[in-house]
Specification:
nine-stranded antiparallel sheet; 153 residues; Multidrug-efflux Transporter 1 Regulator Bmrr, Chain A; alpha+beta; globular; 18% helix
Amino acid sequence: MDYEVKVIPEQKLAVINCKTPIEDLGVFLSILMDWVDTEEIVTDGEPFIVYFSPRHEVGQGDVVYDVSIPIKGEPDETDRIRVVDMIENKVLAATHYGSTDNILDTYAQLVEVAQENHYDIIGSPKEVLIKGLHNCDDEGEFITEIQLPIIEM
């Protein structure tokens, strides 16, 4: 597995907060992407999911997560979509290819890299949907970048 440490610059994000079964993720991603298209929002990256519930519990009832996308400008919020500023942060990142059915294997490898390199994971994991529900019909072709926020010890 290839990995890298990178700095994510300060960003403006459009965010939908969710507490639902993970099967509803596509609905919220669709709401966000429809808002981007309808309001002609200029994006500044790929959509992503931040999991506040443990990733290994995603299939067990309601999950707490955010569906987000980096944006430019100052668009108006809706009753569902908030616009927030995210500060610069450092992440340990690796790419997962294919279905998310076995994504926990990639997480385990990434956590092992963090431990071996004395990185402390200091926040919730983020999955950047490079090729996912919003732009690909074949789960076997999904490309997901996992980002773990870290500090180096």
